[in-house]
Write a structure and sequence with these properties.
Blueprint (H helix, E strand, L loop, with lengths): L1 H12 L32 E2 L15 H13 L1 H22 L4 E13 L25 E16 L4 H67 L5 H35 L8 H4 L12 E2 L3 H7 L1 H22 L4 E12 L11 E10 L7 H67 L5 H35 L9
Helix pairs in contact: 2-4, 3-4, 4-5, 4-8, 4-10, 8-9, 9-10
Amino acid sequence: MRKQLSLIPLLLLGACTVGPNYAGPPQAIGSAATPPAGFVRADNMLATTAPAVADWWTTLNDPMLTWLEERALEANPNVAVAQARLKQARSALRLERANQAPNANASATYLHANLPGLNLGGGEAGEGQGGAGGGGSSGGQSVDFFNLGFDASWEIDLFGGRRRTVEAARANAAAAEANVADAQVSLSADVAQAYIGLRDTQQRLILARDASRMQRDTLKLTEQRFANGTASQLEVERLRNQVESTDAQILPLSSSVETYLNALAILIGEAPGTLDQRLTQAGPVPLPPAQVAVGDPTSLLQRRPDIRAAERNLAAQTARIGVAEAAKFPRLNLMGIIGIGGTSLDSLTDLDNLVTLGAPMLQWNVLNFGRANARVGQAEGARDEAEAQYRGAVLSALRDAEDALSRFRARRNTVATLARAKASADRSAVLMQQRYRAGAATLIDTLDAERQRVAADQSLSQAVAGLTNDYVSLQKALGLGWRVPS
């Protein structure tokens, strides 16, 4: 027994951690060792300074949007789901850390037993025995038993299986934290885009009603000219068709306003209709800032939550290879028992009744018929899958950012062009008004110039909404809009 116990220190000294050590994320950008120094699709209107991670929506300077974003981050169910999963992952990490410590139990036992008498007779007795009864029996008796016990067991982590399990749990908790941030990024973009859609639709609805009013005025004058023989039936029908087409756009726009109101209510965790009174009054579409900070691809890859989650998942899968490898080697368990007891309460204080037991136990499943190697192969395959997913996440993030930059740049140019067109339409409408007052133009010409001005307003309003939406998409592609979970 002493020889066996003397082997324990040698085994402890030889303890190691099997399996590959995680060396950080792999190269994920083709032949390049590092990401490019700057974004390919960026221009001089974009700053290379690092953007602020949280609260990017404040750059739009819209208090209502800021209020909606804050409410959504507090009450949105999808964020709550991610936070609940983070809580589970952190609890799993605490559990795995606790599993490294010994397991101990204390017990107290009281036993009371009534034992029946035992029949010891061997048959009837003869008369020659003086007529004594032949059957004998012992009377019943009661027994009391008291015991106090303590037992402990501890698995010595000889080959690091427990340590690798904790390592995987720690990586899982970090991945869950990144998933919370990713849910916040998606949510902040969804809220902003729904709000921009609402404001854009409200503006388009106002402009459509203005256009309908002017077209009806033009139609009324044309009908009067037709009655006087100075206009054709074709002109009347053409204008009537324009009025009907414009009116047909008003009802869908009104429905879209209600749809956006419902979407925003759900995003902040409220029932549809909750925001109707607060947001029914039309407001302008918020404009992005003149200069936008985008940073560089390296900071993007460090900041985006989905990439951080993929990298932590890769670390967890790498650690699980060590868990599978450790299962191929012996396991050493130490068990100890201490107990004291007897048939009376006084026996609990009598050290002569003390019982102790120590039992080191070495287990090794030698004949596993390849099961352990198969589990290692499974773990290695899961690690390879996680590595491929990480590479894909990196490339997708770079593409998202470059696409968003390209769309934002093109939309800015479009807005500038349409702004010049609107300015030209405004000048034309003013000049036509002046000519009309001077008697050099007809009212029909004046109304037509006003209609063109309204059409230019509609085009510019849609382009501005598209520009702000592209700005929101850029913030999402850059991985902005999250806060460190508590």
